[in-house]
Amino acid sequence: MITAKAIFSAAFIRWYSFVNLIRQKSNNQVMDFQMPVTLKMGDLMSEEEFFQFCQMNDTLEFERDSQGNIILMSPTGSFTGGFNSRILIELGIWNKENQLGQVFDSSTGFTLPNGAVRSPDVSWIRNERWNSLSKEQQEGFAPVCPDFVIEIRSKSDDPKYLLNKMEEYITNGTLLGWLIDRFENKVYIYRPGIDVEVHNSLHTVLSGESALPEFKLDLALLIK
d(Cα 148, Cα 169) in Å, to the nearest integer? Predict the structure, then answer.
């Protein structure tokens, strides 16, 4: 009998071979390919097994979609990582002053109501929602959708994947979401029940609105 672990191992070996091939070719020429890569898994791995798998392979970045398929993420480029950190610091300063919730970085996984496990680049959850979780739930991929999320496009990211991800956050309970695409000079603002608002420039000041009262983010100052 073929086990779920055997099936996953075979799929992982195929993916690892693909990554090594890309690395070998990149030594001789510039490679332009989009991430993430999805491994079709279905329901072969439970939530607990997926969590343990991620802990065992903590040098890699994974997400999981609502069908149970495992998504292999690309590491963030250095400039994008620095940009991400500057945004995280700004949100952290606001949160320290207001004490309204908890701030999380891109390494944090959340289990959404639809079963997907997602790791926003920056996220925030109101204290009352976070404190309603048990300590055990907080130690795993907490079963909660953040109130506020930011996704920042990296050069290798598939824009369609990120757009779909933002829609998923809103559908699962996020109150406000920003998708920042510095390669297309666009910012997408997501809110429940409202059409997506698009800014065709990064020279804009974003507002936390009612989700994050008085929080402002001046992208032009952070993108330099």
Answer: 9
Distances (CA, A) of 4 to 1, 14, 44, 145, 160: 10, 16, 5, 28, 30
CATH architecture of 78-222: Alpha-Beta Complex (3.90)
pLDDT of residue 178: 98
Q: What is the pLDDT of residue 224?
A: 72
β-pair type (186-191, 176-181): antiparallel
Cis amide prior to 192 (ω within 30 degrees): no
Identity of the residue numbered 213:
P
| Domain layout of the chain by residue ranges | 4-73, 78-222
In this prediction, residue 197 carries a pLDDT of 98
**3-state SS, residue 123:** strand
The structure's pTM equals 0.82
CB of 146 closer than 8 Å to CB of 110: yes
What does pLDDT average to in each consecutive run of 10 residues of the chain (224 residues)? 51 51 46 65 79 81 85 80 94 97 96 96 98 97 98 91 97 98 96 97 96 96 85
Give me the long-range contacts of 216-223 (CB less than 8 A, separation at least 24).
217/87, 217/90, 217/91, 219/180, 219/187, 222/83, 222/86, 222/87, 222/90, 223/83, 223/182
- d(CA 78, CA 194) in angstroms, rounded, equals 34
